[in-house]
Write a structure and sequence with these properties.
about 210 residues, mainly alpha, 10 helices, about 0% strand, globular
Length: about 210
């Protein structure tokens, strides 16, 4: 029963549509009708600006971190397997939220939050978090594409887990997160192939 309650708590924690809520409270708009239409921090940055974008980003990260730490501990789900399942569920809640007809964000920030939470409980996974973040940053500063950087980092995630000798449960988590990211970024992949994906303007990139 505690495990079931933990699953429900994690899902609804992830399902809280922070970008949608913030758009309504801050500007009285439906974020789904602006920018890329995505219910995530990146679109909030584009539509509402840096301040709101940072707030939503932090909140989305916290959803993942709280699920595998506070929620897990509250319901006595201390095993690594339990934390991994709660991590998968909180990201699923973010990606497919019941509050918006099961159409949510893309799960990057919440997945990062899950990894951060796991590092607080499992010291051996810290190199995975560091390596994944470094790969994302390198890809982003080289390309200026948030979507491409997220896809590349997600592909490397399970590989880094294997190379650092993580347990099979954590490797499976990395694989599922990778699949989630690629599936949720299908429109971005199509735009990237067509050369239509918006790029974040970085000062050291030459304008075309």
């Amino acid at each position: 029963m505690k495990f079931v309650l933990g699953l429900w708590a994690s899902y609804f924690l992830g399902a809280a549509p922070t970008a949608y809520i913030f758009g309504k409270l801050y500007k009285g708009i439906d974020i789904r009708q602006h920018g890329s239409g995505n219910v995530g921090a990146t679109n909030v940055f584009r539509v509402l600006g840096k301040g709101p974008g940072i707030i939503v980003l932090v909140l989305d990260i916290l959803k993942g971190t709280l699920a595998v730490t506070v929620v897990a501990d509250f319901f006595g789900l201390a095993q690594v397997f339990h934390r991994i399942i709660l991590g998968l569920v909180v990201v699923s809640g973010h990606n497919w939220t019941v509050f918006l007809n099961f159409k949510g964000g893309k799960g990057i920030a919440t997945s990062l939050g899950v990894l951060i939470g796991l590092t607080l409980k499992i010291a051996a996974i810290r190199p995975v978090l560091l390596g994944t973040v470094v790969i994302w940053l390198i890809s982003f500063f080289a390309s200026g594409f948030v979507s491409l950087s997220s896809i590349i980092a997600s592909v490397f995630l399970p590989l880094i887990m294997v190379l650092t000798g993580q347990t099979i449960e954590l490797v499976v988590l990395g694989i599922v997160f990778c699949v989630f990211v690629v599936v949720r970024h299908r429109p971005n992949i199509r735009r990237l192939l067509r050369g239509q994906e918006p790029r974040v303007p970085l000062p050291f990139h030459k304008s075309k």
